[in-house]
Amino acid sequence: MLERGIMVKVFVLLIVLMISSIYVYYNFLSIDTFIAFTKTHQVLLPWLSKLTSNTKQHDPFNNISTSTTIKTASNQGTSTDVNLIKIQANLSQKLDEVLQNSTQQYSIIIWEPPFGAKSTNHLDQSKCGACDVSYDKGKVNDSMTKAVVFHFNELRLNKMPQTRRLDQYYVWWSMEGPPALRELRGMKLSEYDNVFNLTMTYRRDSDIYNPYSTAVDVLQNIQSSGSGDPDKDLDQLISKKNAMVIWIVSNCGATKGAQTRMKLVQDLINAGLPVDRRGGCFPKNKPAPRGQQLEIISEFKFYLAFENSYHCLDYITEKLSFNAFGGGAVPVVFGAKKSDYQAVVPPNSCIYVDDFTNLQNLVNYLKYLDKNATAYKEYMKWRTMKPEEMPNYGRSTSLCQLCRVLHGINVDNLFNPFYSERYSSIPLFGHSSTPRVVTSLREWFYGPLSKDCLVNY
């Protein structure tokens, strides 16, 4: 039984919560009221939680212990926590059972099509749970609409829904790096403090992980379109190569990172590297039509997968997955930190500019690989591996992971390299009964983890 003093505190707390909840009308709040409401509750609810810590919440995985902190190996980005491996193995069967019984369908609304382009989003119920994804704003107040996704480019506070339910997740979505938002568009993001519940970006520490692609997807696409004999396919791919290095680029200098990579490539050419440059930045050179782009890349041994930013956390785009890996060339990478690349790319698949003390050494190494077939092939052997040998195998991403969150079966943040108890309200394993709030979107996206990426934020 709680002591008298604690009982008094609980009583006072409940009175405060009741007063603040007067603003709620049929479970809806205005945007402004919601922000004020969440600031008050962020202070009060943790106190109440501590006082009533014996209260049990519904947990579809209540027979599995999940108290662990994930650690990652600095050189490979893979988990070194034995407990995590055991948890993942134990969860596999339980997750399948929950998914099979997950028949209630929730709705996810994408509030505005990103850059005006709508796409078809069909989620596999057997993997994600039952969710319908649409652009139908008319469903926003429907009781089964559990998440509304807001793409950063079309986002305006005055164009968001004027009311919202407390059980509805607001998701902030961006596939662009910090420079594209802060430098190009002048977005401060501070106006969105306490507005969103979840982040969905390319960063591995996002609440919803939304990469441009995964090593598993890349490998499965390659092998599914092959002959069924990966070794034979690899030899055939290498045999068709008749040129050394290609680079296709259209952003010539919109950000500091884009300017840096333009100079970097020119310096490589000056150091003796033969680079076939194509794309919008080189209109006088032979064009690379998108329909034939991968076929053109496949004739080259190396592709310069250079990002338009430098050391932006996890910012690794289609330049690597679609152009280099999809085109069948060994990527020479520049942009994210080496540790970020190694956490997500196939093993021994990339050549890192940051590994070389000077560009002449890099040029010499590429020329060595060009003449040494055995050494070159080592960078392509991952194409003959099994999908389960790829990083992050088994991790659900994007809208599929969001659907799992809505059904209380989100196990995917076990892969989050920064996961700890402070992330337990994402929710993980259905432990959170109400959506938590991203207190400072600006600090999360522009803050300490991106300090090398932005000089000022």
UniProtKB/TrEMBL annotation:
Known EC number: 2.4.1.-
InterPro entries: Glyco_tran_10_C (IPR055270), Glyco_tran_10_N (IPR031481), Glyco_trans_10 (IPR001503), GT10-like_C_sf (IPR038577)
Major subcellular site: Golgi
Residues annotated as signal peptide: none
Entry's transmembrane regions: 7-26
Pathway: Protein modification; protein glycosylation
Ranges for domain Fucosyltransferase C-terminal: 239-408
Location of this chain's protein in the cell: Golgi apparatus, Golgi stack membrane; Membrane
Record's keyword terms, sorted: Glycoprotein, Glycosyltransferase, Golgi apparatus, Membrane, Signal-anchor, Transferase, Transmembrane, Transmembrane helix
Membrane protein topology class: Single-pass type II membrane protein; Single-pass membrane protein
SUPFAM superfamilies the UniProt entry points to: UDP-Glycosyltransferase/glycogen phosphorylase
Family to which this protein belongs: Belongs to the glycosyltransferase 10 family.
Protein name in the entry: Fucosyltransferase
UniProt organism field: Clavelina lepadiformis (Light-bulb sea squirt)
Source species taxonomy: Eukaryota, Metazoa, Chordata, Tunicata, Ascidiacea
